[in-house]
Amino acid sequence: MESTLNSELLASMMKSKRGKQGLRETATEIGDISAPTLSRIEQGNLPDVETFIKICKWLNVSTDTFVSGDKVTQKQLSEKDKIVYQLRSSQELDSDTISAMVTMVDIAFTKLKRNAK
């Protein structure tokens, strides 16, 4: 079975973690990556291997999370990430609606985390 990189999931998780932070700030936070490179990846383009590894470290996930065709499944994602991924993958919702819903999901999971403590 051939393995491929799930660029949609990578882009979705990057957008989710970055939130309202600018691309330049995020590029600086990740280190040795340009804002235009991050923009291209968020648009679904594939990164080079070194950039991909840096982004995975920044996302705090295994590189296997984005490899499809092997044994990797969505079980490796948190419930929040699964929801955000589905929202960002929608072809029916506009970007403002998706952004608002992602914000609501963030608030709900933040509240859940606080109540668990």
What is the element layout, followed by pairings?
Layout: E1 4-5, H1 7-18, H2 23-30, H3 35-42, H4 49-59, E2 67-68, H5 79-89, H6 95-116
Antiparallel strand pairs: 1-2
Helix pairs in contact: 1-5, 2-3, 5-6
Description:
With 117 residues, the chain is mainly α. The chain has a single domain (4-116), classed as 434 Repressor (Amino-terminal Domain) (Orthogonal Bundle). Helix content is 62%, strand content 3%. The chain is built from six helices and two strands, in the order βααααβαα. The protein has a two-stranded antiparallel ribbon with strand order 1-2. It starts with a strand and ends with a helix. Mean pLDDT is 84; it is low at 70-74.
Name the structural class. Answer: mainly alpha
pLDDT averaged residue by residue: 84
- CATH architectural group: Orthogonal Bundle
Strand content: under 5%
Number of helices: 6
Shape, per Cα inertia axes: globular
Give the total of beta strands: 2
Main β-sheet description: 2 strands, antiparallel
Order of helices and strands: EHHHHEHH
Compute the CA-based radius of gyration.
14 Å
What key attributes describe this structure?
117 residues; mainly alpha; 434 Repressor (Amino-terminal Domain); two-stranded antiparallel ribbon; 6 helices; 62% helix
